[in-house]
Amino acid sequence: MMSTQHFILSLTIFIIISNLHDEVNACRELGEECVTRGPKSCCEPLICGLKSHGTGVCVKCIPGGSECKKSEDCCSKRCKSGYCTFK
Prior knowledge:
Subcellular location: Secreted
Pfam families: UPF0506 (PF11703)
Protein name: UPF0506 domain-containing protein
Radius of gyration: 20 Å
Signal peptide: 1-26
Domain UPF0506: 27-85
Strand content: 15-25%
Mean pLDDT: 83
Helix content: 25-40%
């Protein structure tokens, strides 16, 4: 039979592991740090507004003058030569 101490210890370990699993697999919210792909990517419809080398902050759209890959990611809806236009 499991003692109360063993039960509490087992429950504590289970909770810690569950929280770590959720943290690793959770998408990032508005304003949180992100990477462009993988477990630290932004929750849809947010996108990762890059700051440097694949890391950035989750935003609704990428502002003018910032790097982009697709026009739909830009606030202006125009990505030209790898940068969002201002209008």
